[in-house]
Predict the structure.
Amino acid sequence: MSTGKVTVDGRVVEIGDARNILEVVRRAGIKLPTFCYHSELSVYGACRMCMVEVEGRGLVASCSTPPVDGMVIHTSTPRTRRLRRMIIELLLANHDRECTSCERSGSCKLQQLARQMGITEVRFGQRDKKLPVDDTSPAIVKNPNKCILCGDCVRMCKEIQGLGIWDFAFRGSKTRVTTAFGKPLQEVACVNCGQCVAVCPTGALTVKPEVDRVWDAIHDPEKLVVVQVAPAVRVAIGEEFGLLPGEKATGQLVAALRKIGFDRVFDTLFTADMTTIEEGMELLGRLEKGGRLPLFTSCCPAWVKYAEQFHADLLDNLSTCRSPQQMFGSLVKKFYAREMGRTPEQVVCVSVMPCTAKKFEARRPEFTTGGVPDVDFVLTTLELARMIREAGIVFNELEPEMFDNPLGMGSGAAVIYGASGGVMESVVRFITAHRSAGDVGRVDFYPVRGIQGIKEAELEIGGQTLKLAVVNGLANAEKLIGRIKAGEVFYHAVEVMACPGGCLGGGGQPYPNNTASRLGRMKGLYSLDRAEQLHRPQDNIFVTRALERWFGGPANANTHQALHTRYYPRRRISGKPVELNGRRDERPVEVAVCVGTNCYLKGSYDILNKFMALARQMGIADYVQLKGTFCLEHCDRGVSIKVNDEIITNVTLDNAEEIFKTRIAIKAEPPWVV
């Protein structure tokens, strides 16, 4: 911490722990405009909106210039104002200005700064060529015509999530942000977390809307439309209507959903409690029977997809429990619908979630029965706010209402699912009481709370010390997994959430979705937890009764069928196989060897070379078409190859020759060869 001082517009300000001039200026109460500056991301300094004049140095970018004792800084000179206005005009000239129909109208930073700078006309011509919109992802829509090249999405995806889905391509006026090889978003390793949407200052990246389809379902008289609401939504929805982050709006939220026209308004807290019970029993079972550890949570669909793509060897470590959203959908379609005298097709299940990846999760084939999805539509917090406005509802004037039962009751342990560490604390509350003969009282497990990227804790229970870890942000998850695989650390259980701060920082939450907002929402969730009458999931008699009535109790074959699932390796990027040798005949044996990272590390490149050498030695190279391909989605079982339509797994250098002779060469001796 510096003891120096600077002068900002005539006012002396201490430098303190400020990393750059921008932080000092904001500390002085001056709101300098920025596009590309986020305190949790690296400094980029591209937009130049934060330029200030420093005596003796001239114009400098305040975000990338460290403060020095004695500096005299001017933030609003004729020169800086003229520069900012010019930058805004140039951005607007290169921007698709269909503001009235844009998803971000009203929350667009470019729109706000144009108003702040007093821009009433743009002196430069508008771009004459429009690029195609990418709406292939189930969660995110990319409109490159609204991109201002601030780089926020690039840095968020690379630094916080460790994925690097977005990057800059081309040069000069042709520069744009795109995916690897310019592929559609659904064909790359995107995990649908939506954090790029959360930091995008314009409408270049938005949530893929499902509002119109939900309205259609509500107005269909043949359908019973039920809605479930995630914990993090209730402490964020109010931000869209003037409330502070974390301010309780549960009752108004329920009332708004009824006014919109939902037939039943339920709470995802119900199945969050159910998830905790099932996951707690799963952890205890693995501890007692020597199952695979650590047990990783599986509530976050972005984390699950990340594991499928990058850590197929850890999939057996993932909890088999479905997420609360998917448990709820299964209960509604398989049990509640029957009790209401309806078929699954006649019931429409809608989720309101803070998370964009939940849209992807709802479409997974594992969560569809007989062609009927367990969850039909997923609305983000922002989409629900749009529906409330469309319905003409004055949110702040609504009288609070209660959720419907039996699926509307939850404990405090379920409320905190919305915060990083909440799932782990819920499991701690469950197993502490489950393993104890008497009443253990209230359990508040503070070591796992907070927005830190990686948190570690220990729990003494039944004479055993459980080592626990909680991580948010996939880059942090990758660091932790690396340490686990290297044998540096060991844990019995690990909670992973893709979004900073957990679900409360999801990609579908209101803007600004920054650290201050996340802290406010987190505080709100823990406040709700303290106010709940029910503390542990097993205190929720509606859940325990449902488990007995529908499944004969928790953690058995019946719950495993309806409330659990399995996950499988998934390719990271779609692409055509690369042919490595020519062929003369039109009907060769096609052999594709996976050269994706998991298989490559297990020797697939050497196996491919071995096959090529054997084909030449045996004189059948013209009849064996060898290809290197991307993931065959079986990389948890060793190196995978595909011979025509047959997948062969667990191929090694030791058995490669035998497999080539018995499974490949024999097919390369057709009767037409003389």
Summary: The first strand starts at residue 2 and ends at 8. The radius of gyration is 28 Å. The longest helix spans residues 269-289.
